[in-house]
Amino acid sequence: MTTTRIGGTLAAVALLALAACAPATTSGPQATVSLEPSSSAIALPPAPEDPRPDVVWPLTGLDAEGAAAADLDRPALSIKIENTEQARPQENLHRADIVVEEYVEYGISRLVAVFHSDYPDSVGPIRSMRPMDKNIMGSFGGPLIFSGAQGRFIDDARNSGQKLLAEDVGSSGFYRKSGRSAPHNLHGRPEQFAAQAADMPAPDEQWAFAYPAETATAQRVGESAARLDITMSPRALPEWRWDDAKGLWMRYEDTAPHVTDDGTQLSATNVLMMWVSVRYTSGDAKSSVPETLLAGRSGAGYLASGDKYIPIEWSKAGQFDPFEITTADGEPVSFMPGQTWIELVPNEGVSHSTAIDIS
Predict the structure, then answer these.
(1) What are phi and psi of 341, to 5 degrees?
(2) What is the band of 4 on the pLDDT scale with cuts at 50, 70, 90?
(3) Boundaries of each DUF3048 domain copy (predicted)?
(4) Per the structure, how many domains does the chain have?
(5) Per DSSP, which regions of 41-169 are E strands?
(6) Residue 57 falls within a domain, yes or no?
(7) Would you place residue 283 in the very low, low, confident or very high pLDDT band (cuts 50, 70, 90)?
(8) How far is 50 from 215, CA to CA, in rounded Å?
(9) Which residues of 325-354 are buried (b: 16+ CB within 10 A; e: fewer)?
(10) Is residue 103 part of a domain?
(11) Which range in 41-50, 89-98, 285-294 is most confidently predicted, on average pLDDT?
């Protein structure tokens, strides 16, 4: 086979010959082209505004932009409220930011009502402390307010560093209200309680709030719910029913609406239901008091935010640490802004059956 190779000189001659045969050209003025934006381009929308208000109440996540600085800086008041039939209807309980329902002697329940965004003129009836109360409210940063307790519980709470305000230790702000017999008639004035705790800080947020509210964890991934039936004991049967028109969970006591003394039915945006263990504090049947175990503990439960609910896991590292609420997969849970009730439902340490039924 023969290969023909064209060297550099022959190639140059060939190129000159081609150039000689090409027609002559005349160059004219150069045109300048400027590119203008197309009239059909789509303008980008402005960045959406942050839906979280600039200032919020830490325990509800609600807008606090118009609140006075002194009100935002005041302490959260954790007040023990009686919840027997003789104590209902309570005074101004519906104005608490957070309410915790706990199991006590004889199967009745008692409440820890936490007031920060709203200080009513008066609240009550106020009753005695229990050993778990310091752990229930320690993360709120303010005083524990009560009337009476066994000396060992008072000493334990005081030695833990918890500030205590009580009628029987000389604190002011308590008074007896007419129309009821003792001990169901002791009420108190939050402004006077706060004056005795002026050196205490405002509370921190206890959990994340979702903005907008419909992005809360239960709203995004939960199942629909219309009724929460809780059995703490045969004598403690709280119930919550979803009111679509109000967008709230409405509270009932053994099927009857649970109302305050001005006729307002208690309600909540979030209902946190936690399975808890209970132990008795002594072997003496006359003096033994059930204690809900919280600090250093963990468990399961449910969170209803709006009209949906999810299973949750809870834990609490210590007395002054907040509850950590996660999904079953360990992801942090966000709440809808609004009032929250926490139901501490025993499933260990009691001799009767308990239940959380969601439908």
Answers:
(1) -110, 140
(2) very low
(3) 59-198, 229-342
(4) 1
(5) 77-82, 98-103, 109-115, 144-146, 164-166
(6) no
(7) low
(8) 13
(9) bebeeeeebbbbbbbbbbbbbbbeebeeeb
(10) yes
(11) 89-98
In a domain, 290, yes or no: yes
Domain limits for position 127? 69-358
Residue for token pair 């979280």:
52
Cβ neighbours of residue 266 closer than 8 Å, sequence gap 6 or more: 93, 94, 250, 251, 258, 259, 260
3-state secondary structure of 135: helix
Lowest mean pLDDT of 12-16, 72-76, 236-240, name the range: 12-16
Q: Which H/E stretch holds residue 327?
A: none
Residue range 175-198: mean pLDDT, rounded:
96
Q: Would residue 16 be called left, alpha or beta, if left means φ above 0 and alpha means ψ between -120 and 50 degrees?
A: alpha
Q: Are 91 and 261 in contact (CB under 8 A)?
A: yes
Which CATH number characterizes residue 110's domain?
3.50.90.10
CA distance 23 to 25: 7
8-state DSSP, 150: -
Beta bridge partners of 78: 114, 144
pLDDT at 41: 58
CA distances 64 to 52, 269, 300, Å, are: 11, 17, 32
Peptide bond into 183 cis (omega under 30): yes
pLDDT reading at 183 higher than 80:
yes
Can you give the pTM of this predicted structure? 0.86
DSSP conformation class of 329: T
Does residue 36 fall inside a structural domain?
Answer: no
Nearest C-alpha neighbor of 177 from the set 77, 76, 75, 82: 82
Residue found by looking up tokens 């960045």 in the block: 47
Contact call for residues 125 and 86 (beta carbons, < 8 A): no
